[in-house]
Design goal:
The protein is built from 4 helices and 12 strands. Strands 5-6-7-8-10-9 form a 6-stranded mixed β-sheet. It has a 4-stranded mixed β-sheet with strand order 1-2-4-3. A two-stranded antiparallel sheet has the order 11-12. Helix 1 packs parallel to helix 2 and helix 3 runs parallel beside helix 4. With 235 residues, the protein is of the alpha+beta class. The radius of gyration is 16 Å and the shape is globular.
Length: 235
């Protein structure tokens, strides 16, 4: 699952993190990448949002900091029910106005079966400058991932469409795109667009296949729709 929850502020301008927790609980994902997460920020009532969501979904959480913000920190988080072998908060090239990181986790799905799960939130700036910034972040991420040997799943808010230079870079480096079909507009703000994705890359001995993917119809909790995919990994 991937979900940009806008630090718990819904499209009704109400701060209520419990609504995001309910959406996650309804889906019961094994792994959930969350974007726009606050840690003790005054704008979100000084709550450790990663810990709050982990407690209410009975999952393990990892927070990835982008920057200090409002007495705390702003970033992203990954929740999982799987055993965490290793977690890395990987610094990426800074965005034009904000730093960026990716959470890279090696997870054990079954005995002897591991994957690399990556949660991303690339630069949000538009135009050529934003496109170049996102591409730099993607290149830094792929350079790191190429040193790992397990199958890789990347999800999150890429802030770019499937035909963008950033996504083409991933395709050129062996990643497959999980096609959402006609109902593909994940950002439901003023300018609706398809910017939340799931991509994956297997190995010569470990294959990944897409069984299903869908965007949930959840118009209030966030300006992004929850993205849920089911993948099959063969070892």
């Amino acid at each position: 699952m991937s979900y940009n929850i806008k630090h718990g502020v819904g499209n009704d301008a109400v701060l209520d993190l419990s609504r995001a927790a309910s959406v996650i609980n309804d889906q019961k994902p094994d792994i959930c990448g969350l974007q726009e997460i606050d840690y003790l920020c005054t704008r979100s009532d000084s709550v450790d949002q990663s810990r709050y969501l982990a407690e209410r979904t009975n999952m393990k959480s990892t927070f990835g900091k982008f920057m200090d913000y409002q007495g705390g920190a702003y970033g992203m988080a990954t929740l999982t029910t799987n055993s965490v072998v290793k977690s890395t908060v990987l610094s990426l090239p800074d965005g034009l106005y904000e730093p960026r990181s990716a959470i890279v986790q090696e997870l054990e799905l079954a005995k002897g079966g591991q994957i690399v799960f990556v949660n991303v939130h690339f630069d949000w700036i538009g135009g050529d400058e934003g496109s170049a910034s996102r591409l730099r972040q993607a290149k830094a991420l792929v350079d790191h991932l190429n040193s790992l040997t397990n199958p890789i799943v990347i999800t999150g808010d890429f802030n770019c469409t499937p035909d963008s230079p950033t996504m083409r870079y991933f395709y050129d480096h062996g990643f497959q795109f999980a096609d959402k079909g006609e109902d593909n507009l994940s950002f439901q703000g003023e300018k609706k667009s398809e910017i939340d994705h799931v991509i994956y890359r297997g190995t010569s001995e470990q294959k990944i296949g897409l069984k299903s993917i869908r965007l949930l119809n959840e118009p209030i909790v966030s300006d992004h729709r929850p993205l849920v995919a089911e993948l099959q990994i063969t070892y």
